[in-house]
Sequence to fold (146 residues):
Amino acid sequence: MDGSLIPALDPLAARTSSTLRVRFCDTDLMGIVHHANYLAYFEMGRVEWLRRRAVTYTDWTARGIHLPVIDASVRYLAPARFDDCLTVETRLVELRAASLRFEYSLVRHDELLAEGSTRLACIGPGHAARRFPPDMVLALVSAERA
Fold:
């Protein structure tokens, strides 16, 4: 694969759903999930998205590649509460030579609680931007593995 070409994303292959249960320590005095925890839930979804494609941050960091979040947004629609079982839908929606963007939906049963996105940069040693290596691009555009 030519390292300068980024394959198109398949919307069906670029989606992963994972579940979590709200812990008591995630809630605030009002008994609802504190707003900052939604980004942590998105991160859990993103890490699981990568894991299901045989990608781990540990492997990538061992190669000197890091993926810091450089932009994040959350739109809150309804509160989550202690012990709720939530589904995080994670979608890779954009893959560029040196960055990618995920979108998220946080759902309780059929109710959309929050949605958001994160952009991550691909950086190497010294925190300089770098292109994704071809094997990593292939992993990012692949479907979930069994």
Summary: The chain has one domain: 15-140. The two ends are 24 Å apart (CA to CA).
